[in-house]
Amino acid sequence: MSSRLLEVFEDAKLVEKIKTGLPYLFQLAELESSRAGRLVIEVVFS
Question: Is the pLDDT confidence value at 24 over 90?
């Protein structure tokens, strides 16, 4: 693994921030991608 990536996982303060923020971000993404209470996943090809 990259040394910078290892530093991220060894930083206790940053790990705690990720642990508290990540569930909120997943919930926000789920709300943003739902229609009529159903989760909708769109795939866009360019």
Answer: yes
Alpha carbon separation from 7 to 14, 28, 44 (Å, rounded): 10, 27, 34
Q: What percent of the chain has pLDDT above 90? A: 22
Handedness of CA 10, 14, 17, 22 (dihedral sign): negative
Q: Which helix (H) or strand (E) holds 14?
A: helix 12-32
Query: Residue 5 and residue 10: Cα distance in Å, rounded?
Result: 9
Q: Which helix (H) or strand (E) holds 35?
A: strand 34-35
Tokens of 8: 């991220």
